[in-house]
Amino acid sequence: MWVGTVTHPGVVSIGDRHLTAPMVAAAGAIEIAVHGWDVARACGEQHPIPDLMAEELLDLAHLFVTDVDRPHRFAPPRTLPPRASAQDYLLAYLGRDPNWPTAL
């Protein structure tokens, strides 16, 4: 868990990093959407991430998650068929198996 402090208006410091408030909000949105999907699957539920949200979060994920983050913070991205959903591309980029079965 990271603890951030507001150093200047609109800037949040986390460790030695200084991020704008919108960047922190964007990272939080990815965390909530994807971990929400994880929890739903683990509880035997299927609650998809809406397409438009997944598309926007994937664009952001490409900015936040790089090769430096792999394999320590994220698994390698997974390969998908060309016509996968936006949700599946987001999950696969973050190292998740979009076909992970729900718990029984």
Helix-strand blueprint:
Elements lengths: L3 E5 L2 E4 L2 E4 H22 L8 H14 L21 H8 L11
Antiparallel strand pairs: 1-2, 2-3
Helix pairs in contact: 1-2, 2-3
Question: What attributes characterize this protein structure?
Answer:
single chain; 104 residues; alpha+beta; 3-stranded antiparallel sheet; 3 strands; globular
Description:
The chain has 104 residues and is of the alpha+beta class. It is 42% helix and 12% strand. The protein contains three helices and three strands. The protein has a three-stranded antiparallel sheet. Strand 2 and strand 3 form a beta hairpin. The longest helix is centred in the N-terminal third of the chain and has 22 residues. The two termini are 30 Å apart.
Bulk shape: globular
Which whole number gives the mean pLDDT? Answer: 88
Whole-Å distance between the termini?
A: 30 Å
- Sketch the topology as an H/E string, one letter per element: EEEHHH
Order of strands across the biggest sheet? 1-2-3
Uncertain residue segments: none
Task: Note the total helix count.
Answer: 3
Q: Using DSSP, what is the number of strands? A: 3
Q: Major sheet: size, sense and barrel closure?
A: 3 strands, antiparallel
Helix content: 40-55%
Structural class: alpha+beta
The radius of gyration computed from the alpha-carbon positions, rounded to a whole number of angstroms, is 15 Å
Strand content: 5-15%
